[in-house]
Amino acid sequence: MSELMNKQEKYYTVTVLPAGDTISCSPDALLLDVLEDGGYPVSAPCGGRGRCGKCGIRAEGALSPVSRAEEELLHDRSLRLSCMARVQGDVVVDMPKDEAVLHLPSLELDRAAAYCIAVDIGTTVVKTSLVNTESRERFPLASFLNPQRRFGHDVISRIAAASDPASARKMSGLLRNELKRLVRAVMGRYSLSEKNISTMVFSGNTTMMYLLLGLDCAPLGAHPYRAAVLDFDDGMKGLPVESGINPETELLALPAASAFLGGDLVGGLALVHEQGIRERAFFIDIGTNGEMFLLDARGDVFATSCAMGPALEGMNISCGMTAADGAVDHVRFDQGRFICSVIGQKEPVGISGTGLIDAIAVMLGLGVIDRDGSFSGDQSSAAGAYDPGARVIRLAERVSVSQKDIRQVQLAKGASLAAAQILVRESGMPAEDIKDVFIAGAFGEHLDLDNFRLLSFLPAFPEARWHFLGNTSLAAAEAYCCDDAFRRLARQLRDRIRIIELSSRQDFNDLFLASLDF
């Protein structure tokens, strides 16, 4: 028993120079996670899977052997990929504190004004902006990977992880630490005082809000999927002390509608109403969860949510990464070869969700894959890009699309199409009567609509005008911070939603299976 206890109590120390900070960790902990826990987050656009090479740091000491990914990506042998290196003893890292500071844009701000920090807590990516509460001018700030991702790439995984109280506290603390870092960075970068930050508004799915506030997630993941708390403003009272936010700052959050319909969906509904669209409309916010609503001919609201997974945000994809420098964001086929558009005009090191949609649509058009998503027998049209040994299409030297990647997209597409068909059924209104289709989410901002529609993520909606709304979750948080009328509208519309729960419906399972083919 004593031997077991000693084993459990064993830990190592990571010392960060030049600050001299020390961070304790358990054996075999990823260096990326250890640094993040200690307030030294490292950029890892590929989600920490050794694809992008952007998390290289100077580290010496007892680390796991150099991986193949490190040999290929790092030419400086004094560097290690923090997402690959595991701590196996005491380690020293050379990482100036400013390398861990969020990269904020240059802004000309009125230092006498009051500002709101708007935060969209995405399952994969957290996005932020600054709003002048008087002029209502909006300034984009920073985005960063949600630090809770190590506990799972989707809400179901994180709800399961939160069943362990220590993991639940860890997830809450990780996100709060990032918010503390954000607030400090904003004040330092723009020479603002605590009094300048008058308001902070949060938007996101219900699980993300529960994890932020340390609420019990268990009922969200078990039948009948009930959320005891849908209005979060009162729960914000303990947040300032633990997150380094000025206690006088007003903390608000958009209200949720159900366990799987959060303030991000409610905010999108309010924004669409503000545009004067009150009927015959369909809306989808595409992310790790597909949240959608339908307005019928009478203006009644039907809404549901489906698990699409993180594939369209570059996660769970062999060469996937977020939309950062080096990510392939668009793909076309011209003069017998695949041509990739790359963010930042860098060498391609991974592929984003929009690039993946393009690649699969092009492959489908060439006949490289069949409607069921499988590689067809004839690969001649791929002009040598098909690697039969690895069963992948190589788009660039370090970027390829595998059969598994295609399956991940099919799962997202099947869930999206089936859920949308359920809403159409519930409304009793033919898909042909929909006049406006709104696609929200950062994914939609750069999406090739023709390729998206070719892959049938949604019903055809043949008479509709299609619109891209960008990040409506963040836009709603911006509006909520300084517009009392918008706050009232959001709450009123939330209470009108007819929630369609998919988990108990056999027709959803049947439609999902029937929707997997492109």
Structure, described:
The protein has helices at residues 2-9, 31-37, 68-73, 155-161, 165-190, 206-213, 239-243, 263-274, 353-366, 403-427, 442-445, 449-454, 472-480, 484-494, 506-514; strands at residues 12-17, 21-25, 56-63, 79-81, 87-94, 115-121, 125-132, 138-145, 197-204, 250-253, 281-285, 289-295, 301-307, 327-334, 337-342, 350-351, 386-387, 392-396, 399-402, 436-440, 465-470, 497-499. The protein has 518 residues and is α/β, with parallel strands linked by helices. Strands 21-20-11-12-13-22 form a six-stranded mixed β-sheet, sandwiched between helices. The longest helix is centred in the middle third of the chain and has 26 residues, at 165-190. Mean pLDDT is 90; it is low at 1-7.
Write a brief structural summary.
This protein is α/β, with parallel strands linked by helices and 518 residues long. It is 30% helix and 24% strand.
